[in-house]
Amino acid sequence: MSSTFPQNARSSRISGFHKMSPEQRLAEVESFAGLDAATTAQLGKAGNIDPHLADHMIENAISTISIPVGIATNVKVDGRDVLVPMATEESSVVAAVCNSARQCYDAGGFITSMSSTNMIAQIQLVGASDPENARIRILERKAEIAEICDACDPMLVKLGGGFRDLEVRIIESKGGPMVITHIIVDTRDAMGANAVNTMAERLAPQIEGWGQGKVYLRILSNLADRRLARARATWPVEAIGGEKVRDGMIAAYQFAAADPYRASTHNKGIMNGISAVVLATGNDTRAVEAGAHTYAARNGRYTSLTHWEADKDGNLTGAIELPLAVGLIGGATKIHPTAQACLKVLGVSTASELAQIIAAVGLAQNFGAMKALATVGIQQGHMSLHANNVAIAVGAVGEEVAALAAILVEKKQVRQDVAVAELAKLRGQG
Ligand code: MEV
């Protein structure tokens, strides 16, 4: 079968690649891909982590990619003012939080809470001939299970965490019934994946014995619905531009609540804020995103992560609730110097505080998107910032960037072809 890809003379089976230094690997990649010197130099530039630290974080590292970190201002959470670092490549995201938070600041900002810091790990048992009995046999061993789990992580127990509860479910699958054990573990200031995965793996032989079946998977669930972060806020109707704006925003929410096509985009906007803080603090964006979207579908139909209403005084109130498994210790949070610095900016001392601030940012982000969508549309605000990117993309430098961006916005034509022509004019070449 002929391939439409250009054929490469070299093989991708590079012996010992994983043992090389990042610089040696980059040289291999340069020669494999036929990179020019400027491209290789670009990949060789260290961002704000040393390539050798990157090499400890992941396999086969050759480079790092820097994403801007912006600060969301005006954020008040539970009476405390915070500056929130957000790592994002998308324009308008940080500005939207600043504006949204400003409009509820005088009314008290965000009130937040957290259900617990409990995580769930699952142990899958198949082939039990008597799944109902197997379930009860496993439940009878709760005290032993608690002991085995806690023995895996004495430090966690010392810090007040450890095993909390046991659940055993029977699920019907294409392969017949499965007995699914959930261990519920308080992982405190850790995101907890390592702690609960170790416990689940350690328990597997016992579960096989008690359940009389075969254990396959032993892994945490990202549907961390015991670790829910909540935030709410009230926006005075006059601060948001009146009843018409409020009603348009409530209609926008009702659209998302009723329609998965809209809910997907509505929640994507929420995650613009949430993932940006999760990333800035070195936490696992995919874990949080998986948990959020699954939670949004928990009742069988995908819906909005937020809820919006008018209160008895006619003000707009919003609330968000979602699983937020983030930590302060372990993983990239602990070793990435910029993540550490971002945590210092936030001034948080527990993982729950961090999760609660993140929930507030998600709510603010949603407010900003809904307000723009229900009034002027998002292109107006988005395009002014996007115009800068287009200007840079066509080669504008220094003062040319702002000047060219202003022309594109003025013409309401933020497009690459227009930017090329306008840049030439600016340079007297048009
Ligand atoms: C764009 O990144 C996010 C929005 O589409 C969110 C929304 O539609 O609610 C503006």
From TrEMBL:
- PANTHER family, A to Z: 3-HYDROXY-3-METHYLGLUTARYL-COENZYME A REDUCTASE (PTHR10572:SF24)
| NCBIfam families assigned to the protein according to its UniProt record, in alphabetical order | HMG_CoA_R_NAD
Q: Which species is listed as the source?
A: Azorhizobium oxalatiphilum
Give GO terms for biological process: coenzyme A metabolic process
State the protein's name.
3-hydroxy-3-methylglutaryl coenzyme A reductase
Describe the reaction catalysed, as an equation. (R)-mevalonate + 2 NAD(+) + CoA = (3S)-3-hydroxy-3-methylglutaryl-CoA + 2 NADH + 2 H(+)
Annotated stretches, region: Disordered: 1-20
Lineage per the UniProt record: Bacteria, Pseudomonadati, Pseudomonadota, Alphaproteobacteria, Hyphomicrobiales
Instruction: Supply the alphabetized keyword list.
Output: NAD, Oxidoreductase
